[in-house]
Specification:
This protein is of the alpha/beta class. It is about 35% helix and about 20% strand. Strand 8 and strand 9 (about 145-150) form a beta hairpin.
């Protein structure tokens, strides 16, 4: 794993999110877990070589950030924002998270097949939150402070983890560094606010949900990506384009590559982003009383 500071480690070169951990004088705090089974087991072993795992924090509910929790059972207390807890591995109309996790095994982790659980076994105990909170939460471990900041936008329960002693913030998917941004069912306006919330932090290192470690300066780039997507779809709506026309014509595939292991999903991401924004921008106001 990449050593960001004396006590902060992350992995940016695996399929899935950037799983990380922080070592302290009183054990280890894990932030997001690897999607791939053998990588999850290896990361747990490496983290525990620095001391017992005290907490496991998931920054969001998407499968690439949480599936590895299954392999961390018995290692520390799992901490979730209410939005993460409520949506943890829930099958939705766009994605079956368990099937998505299984899909990566033959191509990205064939050795993981032997330890990949059956669906029923997995859902009987996926290792979700024991501490569940709303708003923000601060944890102290040894001499380190972990500020869990609610930064909704990419997902409703999105959390950034600020560790001031290391001058580091783990943003989760509020930041996609130098790779394609997945909008999915996000709230772009909230997301823009989350970027400003992170900008206010006094940090040297920004560890994104995907892509290389970066700095606060990259927040400008992430903001521009969100604004470009929203503006392009808004212009399409203003021109009277249909949903199908918008999905076909609005895309930013040339801007960045897809993150590791998802290269085949470029077209899917472009269509999903355009469709999601089109639906939101054409939905109209909520019904009275709602």
């Amino acid at each position: 794993m990449e050593k960001v500071t004396a006590n902060v480690f992350t992995e940016t070169k695996l399929r899935g999110c950037n799983p990380s951990y922080v070592t302290t004088a009183d054990g280890v705090v894990v932030i997001d877990t690897p999607q791939l089974p053998t990588r999850a087991i290896a990361m747990r072993s490496e983290a525990e070589s620095h001391g017992p795992i005290r907490y496991l924090i998931n920054t969001e509910h998407h499968v690439d950030h949480i599936f590895g929790n299954y392999y961390f059972k018995g290692a520390g207390t799992v901490v979730h924002h209410q939005g993460v807890f409520d949506n943890f591995m829930v099958v939705g109309p766009e994605l079956d998270p368990f099937a998505y996790a299984a899909e990566a095994i033959p191509t990205d982790d064939p050795e993981g097949r032997a330890i990949f659980p059956d669906r029923d076994v997995y859902y009987a105990d996926p290792n979700k939150g024991e501490i569940v909170f709303t708003g923000d939460l601060t944890l102290r471990v040894g001499e380190h402070t972990f500020r869990l900041l609610h930064t909704p936008g990419h997902t409703p329960g999105q959390v950034a983890v600020h560790v001031p002693e290391e001058r580091v913030v783990f943003t989760g998917d509020t930041v996609f560094s130098a790779c394609q941004t997945w909008l999915m069912t996000s709230n772009v306006d909230q997301w823009l606010g989350a970027l400003e919330q992170i900008r206010a932090l006094d940090v040297d290192h920004l560890i994104p949900g995907h892509g290389p470690v970066t700095t606060r300066k990259y927040l400008d780039t992430q903001r521009s990506v969100l604004l470009e997507w929203k503006t392009a779809v808004a212009v399409a709506v203003a021109r009277g384009w249909s949903r199908e026309e918008t999905i076909e014509r609005v895309e930013f595939a040339e801007r960045y590559p897809v993150d590791i292991g998802q290269e085949y999903m470029m077209d899917y991401i472009q269509k999903l982003n355009a469709a999601s924004l089109y639906d939101k921008l054409t939905a109209g106001p909520p019904a009275p009383g709602r």
